Amino acid sequence: MREDSYKLENRNVANLTPLLAPATLLDRLPLDASAAAGVAATRALIADIIAGRDRRFMVITGPCSIHDVIAAREYLGRLVPLAATLADRLLVVMRVYFEKPRTTVGWKGLINDPRLDDSFDIESGLVLARRFLLELAAVGMPAATEALDPIVPQYLGDLISWYAIGARTTESQTHREMASGLSAPCGFKNGTDGAVAVALQAIEAARSPHHFLGIDGHGRTAIVHTRGNPDVHVILRGGRTPNYDADAVAGCLGALAGAGLPAALMIDCSHGNSGKDPARQPAVARTAVAQRRGGQRGLIGIMLESHLEWGNQALTRDLDALRYGVSITDACMDWDTTAELLREIHAALG
User: Fold this and answer.
1) Do 266 and 187 contact (CB within 8 A), yes or no?
2) Is residue 52 over pLDDT 60?
3) Is residue 48 part of a domain?
4) What is the pLDDT of the chain when averaged over all its residues?
């Protein structure tokens, strides 16, 4: 039998498409010095909030995932002036999620499929994502995103002020190692079943040095040596039952302190804590704020899923039929509800 009759590599790989190197994209779409200073300053503020040095309350708000940059730009335009009026008590950070983890299959986000048509033009997705993040940096709006693919931070990491590691990946060694090298603060969500122990283990791992395979700025395979990320915290997102009540918060903070870890957590007002019902997000937020007002300083902030319009819609092949400003992933609160809630939180924390 001929040697070439055996195909031992890439048996299930249809094709390999070269991708531009991170340094090439950063050269093409650079971050100017003024905007870079703003990103650095916001990262430092968030680190101070996690450590309790800054008493402001952090609010992560924005679409479940960005699928239409035009609508996201309008949301940004509304959020910037509102955030400025609330800045004495709230640090508002825009949720800018470009990657969508899936339980089985489905649209994986703007980077993976920017045209929403299964063309998977990832290079165009990276360009589109970086352009939009540069818009945020230019107007001084800090960006929050989920770290899902371990290569993507090489392309976008200089523009991110805060990361989340999702419930599906908190247990992943790859993501714990990646978080140890991220240049921005990072929150770990509890497991999808509600287990908090995995998040504590993830925090301990992320605070430690690691050595793993990755790529450098020129796209070459490299061994990554990290120092560990000191600015990490828990995100309570619910599970089989919600976990935003006072007992759950106190229990998690106690477990963190007992493990010698930073006693800081954030509450995700969506997902398991709201049953993915956007109408319940304000009630979760109010409960969190009441605990903060009651002296629970370890509760550092909340996450909201919010868009221009209420609810969500299915992604169909007829893209012209999509409603403007409506999420194609998780259901979101509309802008008016969000703005009213943020003003209410600001007043409550006065």
Assistant:
1) yes
2) yes
3) no
4) 96
The C-alpha atoms of residue 254 and residue 197 are separated, in whole angstroms, by 12
Structure-derived torsion over alpha carbons of residues 61, 64, 67, 70, reported in degrees to the nearest 10: -20
pTM over 0.70: yes
Mean pLDDT lowest among 2-11, 227-236, 255-264:
2-11
Find the mean pLDDT for residues 195-214: 97
| 215 in Cβ contact with 222 (< 8 Å) | yes
Count of structural domains, the chain: 1
Q: Is the per-residue pLDDT at 270 higher than 80?
A: yes
Could you tell me the pLDDT band of residue 327, with boundaries at 50, 70 and 90? very high
Average pLDDT over residues 158-167: 98
Q: Look up the CATH number of the domain holding residue 317.
A: 3.20.20.70
Contact 190, 199 (CB under 8 A): yes
Where in the sequence is the domain holding 75, given as residue range(s)?
28-40+56-348
Residue 308 tokens, joined: 């221009």
Residues 6+ positions from 114 with CB-CB distance below 8 Å: 121, 124, 125, 128
**Whose CA is closest to 174, among 144, 147, 196, 200?**
147
Spatial separation of the C-alpha atoms in residues 134 and 156, rounded to whole Å:
10
Q: In this structure, which amino acid lies at residue 296?
A: Q
Residues 6+ positions from 318 with CB-CB distance below 8 Å: none
Query: Minimal CA–CA distance to 79: which of 57, 100, 97, 96?
Result: 96
Give dist(CA 291, CA 295) in Å, integer. Answer: 7
3-state class (DSSP) for residue 234? strand
pLDDT at 1 over 60: no
pLDDT at residue 102 above 80? no
9 within a domain of the structure (yes/no) = no
Q: Which residues contact 335 (CB under 8 A, 6 or more apart)?
A: 75, 78, 306, 307, 308, 309
Tokens of 281: 């997000």
